Amino acid sequence: MTTTAPDATRVAPITTGLDRLRRSLHTAENNTVGYRAHEPAWDRGFVEELSTEHQVSFRMEAFGYTPNELHGHASLCDDLAMAGPLQLLTREGAHALRGICRQLKSCAVHHDYVVSHRLRNVETISPFVHAMVRDPAFLAHVSQLVGVPLIPHPVRDAGVQINFYGAASAHAAPAVAKWHLDGMTYVFTMTLSDHSEHDGGDYIYYRGHPRDFDADREEITARGQAYPDVHAAPFQHVGDTMFTRASRVYHAVTPVTRGDRITLAVSLFCPLLGAQDENRFWHSAPDDGLLRTMGNWRRLHQAVKRPATYCRREGVPILPLSNPRTA
Q: Which of 102, 129, 278, 308 sits in a 20 to 30 Å window from 153, CA-based?
């Protein structure tokens, strides 16, 4: 007999087809017009030293991928699927970021496509975040972890976003992230809430190939964490971060039943493997609308074609086109 997840933890998959087109015809909301940044200044000392202690990592093979499905080229196999929990920021830096994200909650919009309540395009709104994702030490840290050079993503709206999860109220259902694959490949999800501050809100993922998820979609979504290949990421404390190859790993966030949870998702770009970026126009259009997506799409293709020019224009270091693990 199939065990069904209780309603309090069940998450549906995103809709596709005509629903994506319908959503793409809207104009993306902008609630940040009146935002005035009262933020601490970014400090390079906020970048934590890289440590793999207590970290769990999985290669793509663990998710059912074969060698011919991996990113990379003949001299570079880019095959890290998940890693964490890890610390990208010091405790002081993570708590400074937490305060900023709480301050930005009033700017977030409600949307039932992927994440119920979130703020996109954070890098252009927050001076702190803008400086963080361009800091050479921060970029060196994440590049060393993944094994390829990483820089801010040209698809600016989806590059950095804040996700807000809260319990159901008389006026709203609990916020979730539906089962989905991202357009982004290199995604770092940082929790800005201690686990003791909320019940539910688990970041769950399917440890298997997307084709197997699609084949068993109904049973997986019905059983949730009772399904053998569905696991919860081990977030515990403010600053805990998971790397996920989010375009290849199905993931979701369950409803919060008590308290609230905030996460920051930072999606980065590899100029060395830009042509292998898995963004598709329809990944962003249902969230951002057709016009904004066209601008993002143009910037992405310019960065793929001329990565060094993109780095100079964005003020980020032109990272060596080599594998940071062996450089």
A: 102
